[in-house]
Amino acid sequence: MVHVLVHMALLGGRETSDTIARMLNTNPVVVRRMMGLLKARGIVHSEGGRGGGWTLQRPLAELTVLDVQDALDQGPILAPGLSNDQPVCPVERAANTALTAAFGVGEDVIRTEFAKLTLADIAQSAVEGH
């Protein structure tokens, strides 16, 4: 959805669910569901009827990748694939503890980086061809 929001800003700011669905090669129903989550966080607004569509509610410079991530998914960005086949096994418990700790550190790093990265940064990179 970061891709979509940056495109919306660069293309004038208003897109329909059908146009976004074609951009993402998915169904407009999926787009409406995802855009609804963004709308609930004040990132986009929708207008129905002829000439309607989705518009950005905030400038790209005020939107971070973390804003979009958190609007779409309240869970962790990283999810360790823990084994729970043998919960009494000390090796399994030790592996799960170590992996959970490492994924927690990684989660903190990713969230910090996502919070620093604005959609305006991404748009600027696209315009400059990076």
From TrEMBL:
Xref: Pfam families: Rrf2 (PF02082)
GO molecular function: DNA-binding transcription factor activity
GO cellular component: cytosol
Signal peptide location: none
PROSITE patterns in alphabetical order: HTH_RRF2_2 (PS51197)
Organism domain of life: Bacteria
Protein name: Putative HTH-type transcriptional regulator YwnA
Record organism: Sphingomonas jeddahensis
